[in-house]
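Sharing a chain and its predicted structure for anyone who wants a worked example. Both blocks are below, sequence first, tokens second.
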Amino acid sequence: MQEHWDEVPGTQPLVWSWHMDIFCDELQYIAELVFRREKKEHDLLVNVSPGTSKSTIFSILFQPWTWTRMPSARHIYASHPEDLVLALAVKSRTVVLSEKYRRLFPDIIISEDQNIKGYYRNTLGGDRLSCTVGGKSPMGFHAHFIGVDDPIDPKKALSELEMKSANEYMTHTLPSRKV
């Protein structure tokens, strides 16, 4: 995470803090289970204040890191607003395409025939699909790792219908997409 922080477009200079160690330790623990094809013990839910680098670590840098250990890792990321999930995907893809990443991991190449904002894959079987909560569906895709960043618009959080839709997506749609 620290090594490729500066490859993420628009990020502030890195000021590492104790909570980022916890984020990375938790992600690595879960990922190691997947790499070894072992059953996970739990899902990881992170509720922290805005501005704590959650999106940069979980939704941008995690996927390029998993490809360094398991190039065939498949990812689905979802968000309430399509603009956010696509922006996160583009930033993550930018890391993979960066000179530093390509120099360190020359075998991880984005496939020329599938390289769009919402869905791209590498030539070794790994991919990343972007979808939206209550909108663009992940149906037909499965993933080793599923991430959700801002599943509901905060302005609509008090809406029973919006909460029901988000809960349905989190409890029924996404679990059916796991590898």
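Comments welcome. The chain has five helices and five strands.
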